[in-house]
Automatic annotation (TrEMBL):
Domain (2Fe-2S ferredoxin-type): residue spans on this chain: 262-346
Ranges of residues in domain FAD-binding FR-type: 28-130
Pfam families cross-referenced by the UniProt entry: FAD_binding_6, Fer2, NAD_binding_1
InterPro entries: 2Fe-2S_ferredoxin-like_sf (IPR036010), 2Fe-2S_ferredoxin-type (IPR001041), Beta-grasp_dom_sf (IPR012675), Cbr1-like_FAD-bd_dom (IPR008333), FAD-bd_FR_type (IPR017927), FNR_nucleotide-bd (IPR039261), MRET (IPR050415), OxRdtase_FAD/NAD-bd (IPR001433)
Regions crossing the membrane: none
CDD domains: fer2 (cd00207), FNR_iron_sulfur_binding_2 (cd06216)
PANTHER family: NADH OXIDOREDUCTASE HCR, OXIDOREDUCTASE-RELATED
Protein's name according to its UniProt entry: Ferredoxin-NADP reductase
Gene Ontology MF: a single term: iron-sulfur cluster binding
Length: 346
């Protein structure tokens, strides 16, 4: 009641500045979290346990959230999946894989320590369990795509594994695999949970139809998460075999039949600039290569933080191949490329 009464008279930024001198988690309305736990999850990966302040509203297993940190004077924000399930103490966990050249992933894996404070944003994403559990479930993970699927597996284990579940997890090498001991223990505990780890640089094969055949059933619900090409292949393999299929890709699928050397002009109407960029590159990456910093979040076409208006020109969604020539249309620049000269509201 007092907060509602004071709202018109309070500048949130001023309040946050002075409150942070008393407690770094005190803000007027901004979600923040303190790092309260840190442990190595696998080679090149770390799990951070976070204690959010009261402004963070929780999540559903399988969802993502934006994490922000100040690095060399700049606020860097990226999307990470929650790897745990909702807990009674309100704490949450993310498992971060260090990416070559990734500023935030490197910072979180190498520099972040217990006691540090990170920015949060509301959870998002629909890679969640069906509302009505029926039939069998198949989870397909590649690389860091294991994190949201681990959250789903833990959620099902907390329900005593109510439906048959198979989790197949691809990594490059075995030391890079997260959660293996826990997943193997769950497979021992529950007869209807099957877990398979495939290391592609140790003789394991990339995803193909025969690997999935033993997990197929008449009432199958499948979820996949991994690089764009992996998610796309999973979708193609299960298109006619699953009752439902959901996938999320943390990198765009490789665009087909595109000439990355072909140059197009991108007019940025609000900033009054015109740039030349390669047609085969996602617009977000192309603009960042020219020194611009458009608003973005997940960088994989899920959170819609990068959506902007395309005034003119032809754009193609790199994940789906769908093309948009309609003027004044909203596009996601992280997964859209310019097929022709294009005009954006940036």
């Amino acid at each position: 009641m007092l907060r509602r009464w004071a709202q018109p008279f309070v500048d949130p930024a001023v309040f946050d500045y002075w409150a942070s001198h008393i407690n770094p988690l005190w803000t007027w309305e901004r979600p923040l979290a303190r790092v309260v736990g840190r442990e190595e999850a696998a080679a090149g990966s770390v799990t951070l346990v976070l204690q959010p302040n009261r402004h963070w509203k929780g999540f559903t297993p399988g969802q993502h959230l934006h994490i922000g940190a100040e690095i060399q004077g700049r606020r860097i924000t990226r999307s990470y999946s929650l790897s745990d399930i909702p807990r009674a103490d309100g704490r949450i966990a993310i498992t971060v894989q260090k990416v070559d050249g990734g500023q935030l992933s490197t910072h979180l894996c190498n520099q972040t320590r217990v006691g540090d404070v990170l920015e949060l944003a509301p959870a998002f994403g629909d890679l969640v369990l069906p509302k009505t559990l029926s039939g069998s479930l198949l989870l397909l993970a590649a690389g860091s795509g294991i994190t949201p699927l681990m959250s789903l597996t833990r959620a099902l284990a907390a329900q005593n594994m109510p439906r048959p579940l198979t989790l197949i997890y691809w990594v490059k090498t075995t030391p890079q695999a997260c959660f293996v001991a826990e997943l193997q223990a769950l497979a021992q505990r529950f007869n209807n949970f099957k877990f398979q780890l495939i290391a592609t640089q140790e003789g394991g094969q990339r995803i193909h139809a025969e690997q999935l055949s033993a997990s197929l059933s008449d009432d199958l619900h499948a979820l996949a998460c991994g690089p764009g090409g992996f998610a796309q292949t999973a979708r193609e393999l299960l298109a006619d075999r699953a009752q439902s299929f959901k996938a999320e890709a943390f990198t765009p699928a490789v665009p087909l039949n595109t000439d990355s050397k072909h140059q197009v002009k991108v007019e940025l109407r609000r900033s009054g600039r015109t740039l030349e960029v390669a047609s085969g590159v996602p617009l977000l990456l192309a603009l960042e290569a020219q020194g611009l910093r458009p608003q973005s979040g997940c960088r994989m076409g899920i959170c819609h933080s990068c959506v902007c208006t395309k005034h003119e020109g032809l754009a193609e969604d790199i994940n789906t191949g769908e093309r948009c020539s309609e003027p004044e249309a909203a596009i996601r620049i992280c997964v859209s490329r310019a097929c022709t000269d294009i005009s954006l509201d940036l």
